[in-house]
Write a structure and sequence with these properties.
Structural class: alpha+beta
Largest sheet: 8 strands, antiparallel
Number of strands: 24
Helix content: 25-40%
Radius of gyration: 38 Å
Length: 602
């Protein structure tokens, strides 16, 4: 168990050991000092880095603040797609009070029905006609329908202002409707509708004709009847017409005729014929007559029983022939001054002669060698254009890429022609430019009126919805999938063609026309700029129609409805690589017209 014994040479000297301990302590202190210095350098920024930080921070703050403010303004202002352009309206209140506007206050402005009269006033009085023949199934004719299978219907003469003649051929009968209106600043307005029904067969023909009045807005309505339930007079007032009256002048109506009426409260005249049919009672007033359908008199809807009537209809059932005048008067007009009976006949003959002379002076068709039948065809074609001019009021349904759901446009009026009374009884943007090319040769004041109404529909972006579906009646004729308008979709700016024609026909130095163009110019500028930006192509000065279906597998060549040339052959696979030369041509026309107007108005 002996332990090893250390040798003297293995033991350190006492002085040497103290020296080494001192060196180790000094080295450890230097390392600790170096690490602390490095950490201090790492944690303390240099002057240049601090300067950069101080400069960037406020910039980032201001940028974020700007974004917040912008988003806040957009949130407060709402979507731009349904915000109107903030410039003076082209259809101003002063314009509405001018005599030329008042002469077209009343007209056949319900082109969706076979005969409809209304004023160019929102939520006002509406007049219409229905009829049905007692042969086979009871088919009430009211709205223009292809399914009615009429042999023909349409205006044979119409001046677009206060005169029109229409002929309706319904298989066994012919119904002629005639319209005359008159406006006097001191008296008010009056108009007359005459119905003339004639049989086209040798056997006795029994028919019912219904004439009605409906108040869309505020006011009151009442009526007088006789012991035979014949409506003698309908009268009342509205905010626009302090007093009005409607009465009937019967001529050439059989003594056996049966008269009925109906008064009720309605919320709309959409599907009016179906509603009346559901309420009609049946009866056999004469042994030699079939069972007839008759209006029920006073009808109070359960949900509106306490409200006063805003709808009155008068029905006459008779063997043909028949002749019936419906006369409307406002203000100071009286029966002695209105046009009915023989006065109507004389006045109508005068208007027919004036129309024929004006038509020939305007278009020179006889002078060019066209036959009488060809001239009559031309008159009917042109008259259906003028007679199709309508008045609408309401809100479009619109959407943009910023919105998840459609929103309503603002409430607005529209005075416009329509492409088709049965299929498309509403305003179409690019169709209307072509319509007014022809009207410009007839009456420049109508063209200016139509242009002003359309351009007042421009929103703050510079967009006009290409299809105007305003009001319940217009909406009832449109499939649901086509109601909403997208703000990326355009339509050819054909109004530049109209403006070119209008300028060509302006009389030199015509101040009123120059004032009109000055009012339009700010709206035209925004409209043109919208095309120039939203419809631009990928390359400079190229353009592309939006709205083609890029995902469909049901069409070899997807339609381009926005271009107006719906099925014109284009790229089989729509993409942003397309360039559409027709749109480039429209833009060239637009820039030329804008420059021309700018030179005219200085």
């Amino acid at each position: 168990n002996a332990r090893p014994v250390a040798r003297a040479s293995d033991m350190p000297a006492a002085g040497s050991s103290r020296k080494r301990r001192a060196q180790q302590k000094d080295s450890s202190h230097r390392r600790q000092t170096h690490r602390q210095s490095a950490q201090d350098k790492k944690s303390t920024p240099s002057f240049s880095n601090l300067s950069k930080t101080l400069l960037i921070a406020p910039t980032l703050f201001l940028a974020l603040l700007g974004i917040v403010v912008l988003l806040g303004e957009r949130w407060l202002a709402g979507p731009s797609v349904n915000t109107p352009l903030d410039v003076p309206l082209a259809v101003s209140n002063e314009w509405r009070n001018e005599s030329i506007y008042r002469t077209r206050l009343w007209g056949t402005y319900r082109s969706n029905v076979y005969l409809g009269v209304r004023p160019r006033i929102p939520k006002s009085l509406v007049f219409g006609m229905m009829w049905f023949v007692y042969e086979g199934q009871l088919n009430i004719r009211h709205t223009c329908e292809h399914g009615d299978k009429l042999l023909r219907y349409g205006w044979i003469r119409h001046d677009g202002t206060n005169f029109g003649q229409q002929e309706i051929v319904d298989n066994a009968m012919t119904l002629r409707t005639e319209f005359l209106s008159r406006s006097d600043p001191g008296l008010g307005e009056t108009w007359t509708v005459r119905l003339v029904g004639e049989s086209r067969v040798t056997r006795p023909l029994l028919v019912s004709v219904i004439l009605y009045v409906y108040n869309e807005g505020e006011g009151e309505m009442a009526f007088h009847t006789t012991a035979k339930e014949s409506v003698e007079e309908i009268y009342g007032y509205t905010p626009e017409f302090t007093s009005y009256r409607v009465y009937f002048v019967r001529k050439n109506i059989s003594n056996d005729a049966v008269h009925n009426y109906m008064s009720t409260r309605l919320g709309s005249v959409v599907n009016l014929s179906g509603f009346l049919r559901s309420l009609m009672k049946t009866g056999t007033p004469h042994k030699h007559w079939p069972t007839i359908a008759q209006l029920p008199g006073v009808y109070k809807p359960p949900d509106m029983a306490s409200l006063k009537p805003n709808f009155v209809a008068y029905q006459v059932t008779t063997l043909l022939p028949l002749e019936l005048d419906m006369v409307f008067e406002t203000g100071m007009f009286s029966a002695a001054m209105s046009v009915s009976g023989e006065r109507f006949t004389t006045s109508m003959e005068k208007h027919v002669q004036q129309f024929d002379e004006r038509f020939e002076n305007t278009f020179q068709l006889k002078n060019k060698g066209f036959s009488e039948s060809e001239v009559s065809f031309a008159k009917a074609t042109f008259s259906n254009l003028l007679g199709g001019i309508s008045y609408f009021y309401g809100k479009s349904q619109v959407i943009s890429s910023d919105l998840a759901e459609p929103v309503p446009y603002w409430s607005a009026p529209l005075y416009t022609a329509v492409p088709s009374r049965s299929f498309f009884p509403r305003g179409f943007l690019w169709d209307e430019g072509f319509h007014q090319l022809l009207v410009a040769h007839w009456d420049i004041t109508i063209v200016k009126d139509v242009l002003a109404h359309w351009l007042d529909l421009i929103n703050i972006e510079g967009w006009i919805p290409r299809e105007q579906i305003l009001g319940d009646e217009a909406r009832s004729k449109v499939p649901r999938e086509f109601v909403v308008q997208h703000n990326e979709n355009a339509n050819p700016p054909t109004f530049f063609l109209t403006l070119e024609t209008l300028i060509d026909r302006m009389q030199e130095g015509d101040k009123m026309d120059l004032v009109f163009l000055s009012h339009l110019y700010p709206r035209l500028q925004v409209w043109f700029d919208w095309f120039n930006t939203t419809q631009a192509g990928e390359l400079p000065t190229t353009y592309r129609w939006r709205g083609r279906n890029e995902t469909t597998d049901r069409e070899l060549n997807p339609k381009t409805l926005t271009s107006g040339l719906d099925d014109f052959p284009r790229a089989s696979h729509p993409s942003s690589d397309e360039y559409h030369v027709d749109l480039r041509c429209w833009m060239a026309l637009g820039s030329t017209t804008m420059a021309r107007i700018a030179q005219l108005i200085g």
